[in-house]
From TrEMBL, chain A:
Keywords: Transferase. This is 3-oxoadipate CoA-transferase. It comes from Pseudomonas peradeniyensis. Transmembrane segments: none annotated. Pfam families: CoA_trans (PF01144).
Automatic annotation (TrEMBL), chain B:
It catalyses: 3-oxoadipate + succinyl-CoA = 3-oxoadipyl-CoA + succinate. It holds the Pfam family CoA_trans. Belongs to the 3-oxoacid CoA-transferase subunit B family. This is 3-oxoadipate CoA-transferase. Transmembrane segments: none annotated.
Amino acid sequence: MAGLDKRVATYEEALAGLTDDMTVLAGGFGLCGIPENLIAEIKRRGVKGLTVVSNNCGVDGFGLGVLLEDRQIRKMVASYVGENAEFERQLLSGELEVELTPQGTLAEKMRAGGAGIPAFFTATGYGTPVAEGKEVREFNGRKYILEESITGDFAIVKGWKADHYGNVVYRNTAQNFNPLAATAGKITVVEVEEIVEPGVLLPSEIHTPGIYVDRVIVGTFEKRIEKRTVKA
Amino acid sequence: MALTREQMAQRVARELKDGYYVNLGIGIPTLVANYVPEGMEVMLQSENGLLGMGEFPTEATIDADMINAGKQTVTARRGASIFDSAQSFAMIRGGHVDLTVLGAFEVDVQGNIASWMIPGKLVKGMGGAMDLVAGADNIIVTMTHASKDGESKLLPKCSLPLTGAGCIRKVLTDLAYLEIENGAFILRETAPGVSVEEIIEKTAGKLIVADDVKEMTF
């Protein structure tokens, strides 16, 4: 690892420095575009007390769901959870804290966090339980609530292709929260299907510029499908 | 007769206009895509980051990296674009989506909607519903008029925690099409063979029967 070359050779190296009680931002929507090998590495490291920020929390035995097995997650910030039985059990027993956040607000919290904006006003959630305890302001006759942005000690991201410089492109809807998480990690780690030679990715095509990325690793992916649906 | 799910989708589809960008929620709203009138072009937005959702793939074209907000595998149609979740909700929150169709547990005469949380039951989350109802100007809620026990879901005041406050103006139930204005439901259309009396009886919130109330035809 030298200069602008962000490549690392092992998953152990990719998550070096991840310790107990850290906040981890994870890309993905359902099981689509999740950093599955980085999640597996978090499990292998056995770190505990994590706050995980991700739209969802995987399923039993796959995705972020595997971090529930050894109770590595203390708090989950997500818009939709409960696709897994273990999540439900830990939530009901009080072992796991959950902060439900509207999906667009969650995305904007990461975007703002990465962009140096500490908070923003949104109409989303006004008049609902989400607004409880939050400042309300009126602009042009409409009420908005103040939402604080999110940053993480680590961001774990799944890309399609990257180059040595950490420039990343995503494939289809596997993009989702990944570019947002990438901007908001103190250390951003991107795993990709392919690392290409510098110059192969066109500058105008880059989704995540390398400035946001600290480490890049190439992996192989299961890409499990949650709801396989085909034309009748 | 109460409308079938397909008839509800058909009725909602009559609100589509050529050139609309539309977000369809899970369930009955999804079926609306099957009833886009011939010769009309609409672009379906899926909030996980796809504008221009196409039909389901075949076994040969299925792609784990291409799903909709319901996590089903889909395709992208001609003219589609794909983007990140912040961009997706910028178009929703910024009012760029022409029509949003989604389900609910309850709506009330103030245009409040409850659709995500039943106290005492496991709460899975609001997903994108709060952003959708806060951001859209033109929303149609699709739901059954009353619960299985006959309890009205069109209320003077929502009893469940809200998804959004004062944001709903159009409701299609299995019995009627109603609009919400000045603290009342306005009955505009009845399902075929459903009497105005039955709708009055099953609407707990204040109901005004429009002078020109029509019976839907299919």
